[in-house]
Amino acid sequence: MQNKKKPIKAELITRLEYKSYFLRRKLLQLTGKIGGAHIGGSFSMMEMVVCLYHSFLKVDPINPKKADRDIFILSKGHAGVGYCLILADLGFFPEQDLDTFNQTGSKFGVHPDHKAIPGVEASTGSLGHGLGLALGIALAKKLDGKSERVVALLSDGEMCEGSVWEALLAAHHYKTGNLLAIIDYNKMSQDGPLSEIMELAPLKLKLETFGWRVHEIDGHNIHDILHTLRDLPDPATSKQPTAILMNTIKGKGVPFMENTVLWHYGGMDTEVEKKALAALDETYNSVIERFKKLETP
Ligand SMILES: Cc1ncc(C[n+]2csc(CCOP(=O)(O)OP(=O)(O)O)c2C)c(N)n1
């Protein structure tokens, strides 16, 4: 639920930090089971998607098609495994369904399928299309006099697609104030650093020059994410699209997976899984301690 201008409690921050840790853990365990997954880009967006679903978007896991809901589109569809774990945790579908992830006959392919998975609003995976799709939905909502928000989460490698810049242009032209683009700026694509493949910097300036309001934040800082989301302009009245440029780390949380293309997509044997889980626990040790204190009567 949207929580405009209300103070954000330290307890909520701790709970969402813990949730982000806990879901990373689940993803490592699931990767061990299914043979391989897009870990790097799932970990870089984790805090943001957790905050969106737990504290911002008007969505209902019991009634995913509810009228007047906010719309979220995971444009970086290859991170569908992390996204689906978040949806399962919220109750959109049973978590054990994910044991078939990317297996023949499963409704969970590498890329999310909106016809098969409750809560998924668009089938994505071919990069460069989610923002244009979100823009179309946002324009339709405006024409219909609706007040919901439409959110697209893009990866930075995806920003090399020309179609993204067409959508950025058009969103400004059509004054689509109900559109929010979030860019997972981990500076790393599938094959290497963007500084070598296609430099995006100065990205904030480029987005502003295209007419967007831009907030640049630390995408792993729950406090900053929640405050930025809380203070966004009202989608019903705003005439300017907004972007959140979040600086993130690919593979965040497991030091040997961070900032390396090796873990863009990867599989693990039991030994590596154990090592990764231990490293993750160490990274989030203080979060785990704070969470335990909250849970102690
Ligand atoms: C149109 C298109 N071209 C190529 C690919 C193959 N592909 C999958 S992920 C990826 C890039 C991954 O880097 P980035 O977009 O920055 O994602 P993140 O680091 O957030 O995982 C590419 C090129 C694709 N999915 N779609």
Structure description:
The protein is built from ten helices and five strands; from the N terminus they run H-H-E-H-H-E-H-E-H-H-E-H-E-H-H. A five-stranded parallel β-sheet has the order 1-2-3-5-4, sandwiched between helices. Helix 1 (10-34) runs antiparallel to helix 2 and helix 1 (10-34) packs antiparallel against helix 9. Strand 4 (213-218), helix 8 and strand 5 (242-247) form a beta-alpha-beta unit. The chain has a single domain (10-295), classed as Rossmann fold (3-Layer(aba) Sandwich). Helix content is 42%, strand content 10%. It is an alpha/beta fold. The structure holds thiamine diphosphate. The site of thiamine diphosphate (TPP) has 20 residues, from helix 2.
Approximate helicity band: 40-55%
Largest sheet: 5 strands, parallel
What's the β-strand tally?
Answer: 5
Number of domains: 1
Continuous helix count: 10
Report the principal-axis shape: globular
Q: Kindly provide the name of the CATH class.
A: Alpha Beta
Task: Detail the poorly predicted runs.
Answer: none
CATH architecture: 3-Layer(aba) Sandwich
N- to C-terminal distance: 27 Å
CATH fold assignment:
Rossmann fold
List keywords for this structure.
single chain; 297 residues; alpha/beta; Rossmann fold; five-stranded parallel beta sheet; 10 helices; 42% helix; 10% strand; globular; binds thiamine diphosphate
